Amino acid sequence: MATASSPQLTDEEIVVKTLQDKQFFGEIVDRYEAKLTRYIARLGVRNTEDQLDVLQEIFLKVYKNLNGFDRSLQFSSWIYRISHNEAISWYRKKNVRPEGHLIADSEELLGFLSAKEDAQDAQFDKTINAEQVNAALLKIESKYREVIVLRFFEHKEYEEISDILKIPIGSVGTLLHRGKKQLANELNSDAIRM
Amino acid sequence: MSTNMNDFNKNTDTKLKDTLFYRIEDENLQPRSRIFFKSRECVMWALWLMSILIGALAVAISVFVVLHHQYALYEATHTNFFTFLVDILPFVWLAVFVFMTYFALYNLRHTKHGYRYSMTTILCSSIVLSFALGSALQFFGLGYTIDSQLGKQMKMYMSQEKVEVKLWQQPESGRMVGVQVLDTVEPEKFIIFEDVSGNRWRIDVIELFPEDKALLADMRRVRLLGEVTDLKNKLFHACGVFSWVFNENTTRSDLSTSRQAFVDKMGQFKVQAENRLAEYEKQTFDSASATNTPPMSVCANIALAR
Fold first, then answer.
1. What is the pLDDT of residue A1?
2. pLDDT tens digits, residue range A79-121?
3. Is the ipTM of this complex over 0.90?
4. In a designed cystine with A80, which of A56, A153, A164, B44 is the match (CB 3.0 to 4.6 A)?
5. Would you tell me which residues 110-149 of chain A have a C-beta closer than 8 angstroms to some C-beta of chain B?
6. In a domain, B15, yes or no
């Protein structure tokens, strides 16, 4: 299937174009398929077939709701919001707990551990490896995990996280602060157990 | 993980896009119209506005109740102001207000940008709006109008007027609501009074003050305070007559005057009772033979009891 390739256009411009010619929708898929696959994997959709199903639903929902896209938001925030909701409803439907492999490589892990925010409240032992962080992340409450994933692994700003999760910006800060604290507790208690 | 993800992307890149376009064609999918989203947003705002308005009505009626009853003759109907408050507070409207505030919160949170405001901000703004609007509605007399209209239209609804009737139409407790319907051959001593339940009473008006008798003679609805002296023959000894203050033209000054009249009247009867007791004590002290209690007026007894 041939699609219009428009690398110079912004996401928002492509949305306008897609509403006139659906072939432009392929460009949206091209731009977000990899990002969203990683994101839903981090949220707990691990199986490749499941990922494909969820992605299909996400993109079809995006297509059907293009006219509902609020131009005052970033398109990426809007599509992440849809993805977040789809991933949540997927594991609710399947009645499973998220088993995301949150950290992909050592670079991400180092980035996460050296993040300045709330450093005074969450002092991590630098010898902790990715597996331990993954295990600890899966133990903390999902509302904290979701914010941590968006902030440290998807590198979203507070305002974007607020738009994606539909919560006030102030709550993003609070959740991150508490999330890191809870994570530090988990990591420290794991270290003690070891 | 990243290697696996790249493989996945390579394998599914065209597959996903093709599947999507296939499904769009096959299921004839179209983007929902802009009007759909606009209408949904409008509905949310309309529901929010509606909940604020209903909340404001609840506030208006509650304010009306509180303003009205702050001048109530609660000493005549209750042992203290607290028990009186429990009886008259419009709990249904307070519940409506709480529910509507929650509903307003829900609707505003579901508007396009509602999530950006904190729960506290939305909650406080909804409450402040409802109170401001409710007070304004009450200022224009809407609290009374809605309450009394609902009372007239709905049998089940306890308007404040019905509550007041319920509190005052209790002959056994010495309270009645009704109108004077007839004079007797001795109008200075007895009149015929019909209460709101349709019972006719012979009222002993001997202890009433002239202004009380004048109020009765107006043949308008009044509240009567006294004591049943013969239930079987429907005899009632009246001690005070108070105007019925439930209409839209009643001002706070009328209510205040009515309450002051009640307090004064009870005060006068109390002084009368105390004087009689003092006189009795003096007689007992002066003469060892004085054994009978001097006759105490019915109203003086009531004043002492309250």
1. 46
2. 999 999 999 888 788 766 656 566 555 466 556 666 655 555 5
3. no
4. A164
5. none
6. no
Residues B145 and B195 in one domain: no
* Residue whose tokens read 């109020």: B215
Q: Does residue B114 sit in the same domain as residue B200? A: no
pLDDT tens, position by position, A105-114:
546 655 666 6
Same domain, B184 and B122: no
B81 touches chain A (CB under 8 A): no
Interface contacts A/B by beta carbons within 8 Å:
88
B141 and B189 within one domain: no
Asked if the structure places residue B236 within a domain, the reply is yes
Give the per-residue pLDDT at B5: 42
